[in-house]
Amino acid sequence: MKTIILLFFSNVFMTTAWYWHLNHKDIPLWKTVLISWGVALLEYCLAVPANRFGSIQGFSAFQLKITQEVITLVVFSVFAVAVLKEPFHWRYLLAFALLLAAVYVVFKK
């Protein structure tokens, strides 16, 4: 559970680092890059331990990556709708279902 929680919060920071500036186009690009690097540093401080703990708990690298991708899409979806005010389409749900199928396949014994 520690791995999932750390991956969740690391993805909140990473999504913010990559996309917050889309609503702040008035800020010079060089400043947005520096700000994003600072936010991304926080992401790394959570993602690296998350992957280490997950590996210790028995997750394979493939399982960690697929789990991280699903978390990323959930976090990004909320961010895109709430912060960027983008519409959410039904086809995104279909894509998520396919990703969840990938998670099932990866974790199936």
Please tell me about this protein's structure:
It is a single chain. The chain is flat. α1 (2-19) runs antiparallel to α2 (29-56), α1 (2-19) crosses α3 (61-82) and α3 (61-82) runs antiparallel to α4 (90-107). The longest helix is centred in the middle third of the chain and has 28 residues, at 29-56. The protein is mainly α. The protein contains four helices and no strands. The chain has helices at 2-19, 29-56, 61-82, 90-107. The model has no long low-confidence stretch (mean pLDDT 93). Helices cover 79% and strands 0% of the residues.
The SS-based structural class is mainly alpha
Q: What would you call the shape?
A: flat
- Count the DSSP helices: 4
Measure the end-to-end span. Answer: 20 Å
The string of secondary-structure elements, in order, is HHHH
Q: Enumerate the spans where pLDDT stays under 50 for 5 or more consecutive residues.
A: none
In short:
The chain is an all-alpha fold and 109 residues long.
Defining key terms:
109 residues, mainly alpha, 4 helices
Topology:
Elements lengths: L1 H18 L9 H28 L4 H22 L7 H18 L2
Helix pairs in contact: 1-2, 1-3, 3-4
